[in-house]
Amino acid sequence: MIETAAQSYVGVAMGYPSAMPPESGTATTWVHVLTWSYLALEWIVRVVMIPVVMRKKSPQAAMAWLMVIFFEPLVGVFFYLLIGETHLGRKRLRRRLAAVERIRALRPMVELDGAIAAAQVPQEQRDLTRLTQTVSDMRALGGNTIELIDDTDVFLDRLVEAIDAAEHSAHLEYYIYSSDESGQRVSAALIRAAARGVRCRLLVDAAGSRAFLKRGAGELRRAGVSVTASMPVSLLRALLARIDLRNHRKIAVIDNRVAFTGSQNIINADYGSRRIGAWRDLSVRIEGPAAFQLQRVFLEDWTAERPNEQLDFGTAPMTPLLVGDVSIQSAPSGPGAENTAFSDLLLACINEAQERLVMTTPYFVPDEPIMASLRVAALRGVRVELVIPEKGNHPLVNAAARSYFGALIDAGIRVRLHTNGLLHAKTLAVDDAFTLIGSGNFDIRSFTLNFELMQLFFGAEAVRELERFHQKCIEESKPLPQAQWRSRGRLARLGDEFARLLSPLL
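The chain above was modelled as a monomer; its predicted structure follows.
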């Protein structure tokens, strides 16, 4: 019976008009051979892939891949070879490590004594700064001032203003750089700066900014702006390394003095679609010594793509001004060197909370340690609030996120659905002590696959600024009651749970 079914399957696949193969003896023999060869190949794939997949550090990811491979062996192994392993490729990894070493050799030029910042970090958070320095090789630096910007037009005004004031260098790095009105404004500012003799560099992700690289980069290059694609994508590269590892960072550094970072890309607020509404991003304008750390991150990424270019920090003065009382510590993370800086930092931040913890993120697909730490925080009396968009732009990711809501609500975590556009800000505030802002989503992709940049901010000014933003987000949100959530239809729950099975692969 099994053999007959298999023959029918292969017969249809070979294009026969009916499920059964031709009755001639030769054809029947070949169908038998093909049938059993196909079945044998499937089982060989299943057996061979077990030890390959089990090498993955995450048991959840291993089980998800095994499920896919056992159901559809050939399709599963194809996708595993395409996106199953987190590796950059030998050549790219060597270039990135070499770029990091070149920057480290210049460290005395670009970092102040850590004692300057240590005096401004509360004693209770010194362990957090030590952990961050260990996993990211970045010190906490004091003497900064910040401005939080949650409006795309205001962000563009401030960025263009900074580029127009540049005297020495303007370095920009963005996941999405569009050729729309927003991108044209920034491009025009870079062209004006290049005409004044300012050293202008623009690094954009090859996938996120694909359209710009095809249509808009040429004008900038002709005007003297250096434009480079980060993490190029091609079918040939897919044979050597994973192609969906992306540079998700958002950085701009002007004259080693002023910097911008956060979640804002260079694109109109509607991101090319008015279906959901305007995207709500959060950027930070930084002035002070912390701009040097972002310059360092930019140059590491730039040099990894252009290893033969002379490394320099521009001709801007190397003595930063101490202009405020905010201490900032950067935490770049990404694949390649088993770097778990982002997830380690997020876990440590959650564990620091004593009274209140507020999180905003567009995509919430946590790993097991993060999920457990949130539940434990709520169970020990911390008021935990999670604000996420009511409507997202990735249906499968949104469904996976919904599958976690029940456990969160049961633990006493307040889940709020933001209704005014798509909340794209990635933030966390712990008590009245510190905040975390950056480019990384609170999901497995940002933890392990993307190059991200998160920053810790210490000081009353930083906490007050983010509290105002969080209060605005909460006012624009509606709570998710437990009874309402439990009353969902069985089909909706089943779909969410299925998406959760795939969450380690998202």
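Residues 1-22 have pLDDT under 50 and may be disordered.
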